[in-house]
Amino acid sequence: MTAVPQERRVITAIPGPKSQELQARRNAAVAAGVGSVMPVFAARAAGGIVEDVDGNRLIDFGAGIAVTTVGVSAEAVVRHATAQLADFTHTCFMVTPYEGYVAVAEQLAELTPGDHAKKSALFNSGAEAVENAVKIARSYTKRQAVVVVDHGYHGRTNLTMALTSKNMPYKNGFGPFAPEVYRVPVAYPYRWATGPDNSGPEAARQAIEQITKQIGPENVAAIIVEPVLGEGGFIAPGKGYLPALRDFATEHGIVFVADEIQSGFCRTGQWFACEDENIVPDLITTAKGIAGGLPLAAVTGRAEIMDAAHSGGLGGTYGGNPVACAAALGAIETMKELDLPARARHIESIMKPRLAALAEKYDVIGDVRGRGAMLALELVKDRATKEPAPEATAALAKACHTAGLIVLTTGTYNNVVRFLPPLVIGDDLLNEGLDILEQAFSEI
Ligand code: PLZ
Q: Most CB atoms within 10 A, among 55, 62, 82, 190?
């Protein structure tokens, strides 16, 4: 691990002069469509701190969008990946395979929910994993329709743009989108008209009715849902919603896919978020936290479904790259050794009460929610109407950034502040980050 002191330090304006210089170079050389949350360039990072090129040390409540769960340079990740780099960087698993890929697939079979026989295929990004889950489900069922939910996010490639619900910034002007994608209601407890407790059963009933009346279950290859919706606003569907869809899928031979790309690998206080309601998906997509920051993604699921695609039908030049696989083995080793699901619950026990206390004090906070180290505040202009407050959300994030705290926003209405600290962050940094957040609320 790089020796980056685990202390916040703000010694220049943020962004500082060197970041501003780099930003000018970036603006000249990098396509405008690629955005960044903060125009601050990273120099080093470790634990719960990102140090920028001007020497400022920022507390990290973003983990590179839920990726560096084990930290940015976990000892075991560095050790395994470095050893692999020295051995070979690539042969292509489709040319001459190597053990790391198989070992990752074995770990995935062991760690994901359900004790049925499982197999995996590895890819580079979350979007690619989701696309492949669809290919596999279509091969297995010989059906075409894919059902996704309101507020769902599954990626930026053509098929996953179609699966993603939010237009700006993900889809606007990028169509036409892939056909045979259908969207159904999701149980959004905070915004459910008849109250949060009704959201699960009522949304499930509506979703099932739409599938039945508008598509026909016999035409549906897969239902894809995030057990906790990430880019949609950290929405944990109301109780009963996921089990009802799971049962409906079973009844009609539909492949139930849990997209755990953001919620998986210890983030919500369990290895996978779908464990919360004892859901056993047929397929599960993972990425982000799986490999401690190296690009790796997977589809894991029932062996008979995973084997449905013809030989040679799945793959890609870099899928399951050996260095990324080695990193994943190091990351998983770290998660087990440090019991990171427990650590996520510990983070919740520190953060949730303090977020709840903020909500007592500031009317702009409409909802405090999430599980483990996947927590969020939804901001509203008025608690009665629940009108979203995107401007206040942006101002709050900006105030945090200026004070040296990395926070991200999310949500269909751009009005959710989300917290995704690396699970190895120290309690002192967590508390200091919350102090900064409190200060930011008092400023806006
Ligand atoms: N499925 C549930 O959260 C990625 C997107 C950031 P990739 N979420 C972060 C952005 O603005 O691009 C994500 C996800 C869920 C799929 C994906 C896609 O994963 O690795 O970004 O392709």
A: 62
